[in-house]
Amino acid sequence: MSTALTVPAVASAPATAAAYPTTPVKVSDGAGSYISGTLTWYNRSVDFTGTLKSVGCRRAWYSVFDGYANPLGARSSSTHCNTVTSVPAALPADVVGGGSYVGVCLDDANGKPVTSCGVYFRP
């Protein structure tokens, strides 16, 4: 006599990497220009994805800092006038654990801030 063994079918979820933390960003000048998007925090960099709406001429500026307020890297978009455009940026943060916070600024065509910069901390 033979005995048939059956193994129950068990579905297993595939292994996936943990999601990287994100932070929403919004900096506006009160006159219609703004930077809006998301910071994604990686181990040794921070990425910004989002848009710049410029009334007149504006540029986006980003800088990442460590936990002691030391600058780790900065980037700026080019100047954009009277438009809405994508302004992605990859910010280097080449220290253990990556950046602690990012400053996001809305600048005029000459690189002068037109409003207070937003400060966004790593979650």
Task: Report on the biggest sheet.
Answer: 8 strands, antiparallel
Q: Fraction of residues in helices?
A: under 10%
**Total domains:** 1
How many strand segments?
8
**Spatial shape:** elongated
Order of helices and strands: EEEEEEEE
Q: Structural class, from helix and strand content?
A: mainly beta
Low-confidence stretches: 1-16
* CATH fold description: Immunoglobulin-like
Provide tags for this entry.
disordered N terminus, 8-stranded antiparallel sheet, elongated, mainly beta, single chain, 123 residues, 8 strands
Could you write a compact summary of the structure shown?
By secondary structure, this protein is mainly β. The chain is built from no helices and eight strands. The protein has strands at 22-28, 34-41, 45-65, 71-76, 80-86, 89-92, 101-108, 118-121.
